[in-house]
Amino acid sequence: MKKVIAALYSVQLLNYAVPIVTLPYLSRVLGPTGFGIVGYAQTVAQMLLILVEFGFDLTSARKVAIHANEPETLNKIYWTTVSAKSLLAVVCCIALTGIAFLGHGSDANRVSMLLSMFIIWGSVLTPVWFYQGTQRMPTLALSMLLVRAVMLVPLFIFVRTPADVNIAAALQFSPPLIAGTLLTIWLFTARQVSFGCKVTVRDIVHDMKDAYHIFVSSALTSVYMYANVVFLRAIAGNADVGYYVAAEKLTTPLRQLSFPLIQGYFPRVCQLYANGQVSSAVELLRRIVTIFTVSGVALLIGFQVLGKWFVEHFYGAGFSKTYDILQVMILVPAIIGVAATLVQLCIVASGNQSVLKRIYVGGAVFHLCQMPLAIYLWGGVGAAWSVAATEFFMTVVIWFRTARINTHLLANGQSKNAAGTP
């Protein structure tokens, strides 16, 4: 387990080097407007990506972890999940086409929107859930890192002026599709999955019902993860979107630093809850939450000391507004790390994902009540504060729900033990 987590963090840190190389280059070549065009198309695709993923990355990963030693069952899980995601991807591509041609954006906006379909099909072909459930996440992470690194070559060769914004979009959006294709080929060549598995509509519907609560939670999360960009563009235009997206591009990899630890322990925690070892799961949960809390405090202190200098030298003088946004958004990665730990390593791992829908409905309502006014009054900084406030609100609610679940499971376990004692 420790080796898997260490490998994931090694790859994740190397993965963080890719945006450190590309973002300063793209911000200077494309400028705030071009940067905003690419960022807006990517944001729309990521919002639709929630429909494609439909919660399968968690529910299917849990099934794979539980049935890891049953080849026929794994093959059925694989084909059912891929079939469902493919159908949803077709719907999303139709939506992207409509947005591209029915909107009032420029030709560059339209082409970037169509190119974002690469992101959609990259999700279909990248079986993150299968690799996570079989504890092969280092293989997946390393493959995606290598593809992103190789794509740097054409990026620096062909993206030279603001007119190359669509080339930049294509090269930024294609790595998931390429990596996903390679990872899928590996599964077949290694005989982890095979052709000839019959999947019925009933199978797809059954899996979608199981993942429905995760999907609703993710869809509601998108309200406060991505809607800010849409509102910013409507109120202030592409340049302000560029400032905000530039800040997101730095905090997103920081948020992702929590994923290796969570992904590494997810199969084990699912098994602990399945075997009734709730106390062990709770103790592990506490240690991981402590790690993310301490890391968040250290990150906040470090940014206060070096943040302004870093932004000026990283993005250039034209992105000075990004520093003001980052002063707020630097809080978000640690908050999300704690929330993701509680959600995935307790609520989902214990099979209680049905409670997530009500939690995230509350979060979406909270965000919609304060986000538009914050953006109208303070622009990008207001958008950052609205996200931070909502994430904090959600984490507190999730914390109390997690405590109730574990208390209930521990009480039931103790009752059963007492009942079985002569």
From TrEMBL:
The chain crosses the membrane at residues 35-56, 77-101, 113-131, 140-159, 165-188, 284-305, 325-347, 359-377, 383-400. It is found in: Cell membrane. One of its GO terms (cellular component) is plasma membrane. Pfam families: Polysacc_synt. It is a multi-pass membrane protein. This is Polysaccharide biosynthesis protein. CDD domains: MATE_Wzx_like (cd13128). Coiled coil: none annotated. InterPro entries: Poly_Biosynth_Transport (IPR050833), Polysacc_synth (IPR002797). It comes from Caballeronia concitans. Keywords: Cell membrane, Membrane, Transmembrane, Transmembrane helix.
